[in-house]
Fold this sequence. Notes:
Radius of gyration: 19 Å
Low-confidence stretches: 1-6, 11-21
CATH superfamily: q2cbj1_9rhob like domain
CATH class: Mainly Beta
Number of strands: 13
Order of helices and strands: HHEHEEHHEEEEEEEEEEHH
Number of domains: 1
Shape: globular
Largest sheet: 13 strands, antiparallel
CATH architecture: Sandwich
Helix content: 25-40%
Number of helices: 7
Structural class: alpha+beta
Mean pLDDT: 89
Amino acid sequence: MEPAPEGAPPSAPAGLQRAAPVSDRPLVDLDRLEAQLDELAPRYRDARPYPHIVLEDFLAPETLARAIEEFPSLDPERWNHYVHANERKFSHTDPATWGPTLQAVLAECNSPRFVNFVSRLTGVPELIPDPSLEGGGLHQSTAGGFLNIHADYTVHPHHAHWRRRANLLLYLNEDWRPEFGGDLELWSTDMKQCVEKIAPTANRVVIFTTDVDSFHGHPEPMRCPPDRARRSLALYYFTVEDHPLVRSTEYRARPGDGLHSVLIYADKQLLRAYDRAKRHFGISDQAVNALLRRLERLRRRRRQP
């Protein structure tokens, strides 16, 4: 499907219909959130190390329960693999195959009213959502998974005028224990210290400004049992600008990373080359993952007697 024209309101991906209500109650109590904006917006603006906020009890309880129940299992044929020196996680960016509750939550968080709430919260006017879920969608990290500290890419790979401005992370982890790890770490803009850690507990939302020095991640390998995973929904919001600064994801070593910092830097350079290829040739992570899966199946067939 041809991308929407630059600046046009994004439309839903092909095959995705707005899901039927999962409850008589609203999925997200926007009346409550909007009524609190006079208190929430200054909290967001003044937060350190950069503007952000943590919202609890984001979804209605019955919506949360159904969203967790519908969260897809880790089928290698449906999940994109991000497995390299700077991260080990999986993403699912085909909402047409999600359950009705997850579809409804996605539609709600990309709705004009909710996006307007995010604009007013962050102080960034005229935000737009990303129906392609580039880099977003459903995420999960299993035991041993991690995401090194980084600042996100600044411009959408397939929309040259879309500047990335805000992230929303909704956690979907029931009974999450501290010993499992996976805390979201927010680092100072000079990368000298971790300023805040946020546990990925169910129904918690984190919204934060994405800028060239909005460093964050969960760099310590996960310690959860084999049957558990750190699960979330990640959504990104953009503005349309004439000449936005283009930069790929900027991974950084932490103080004390030692020789590991060399691997972090080398991997970052490879990822920059991949990012340039995506922008130049219009390729997607989904297409690359599909190709890798086909090559792996071919390799396995050739190894069979």
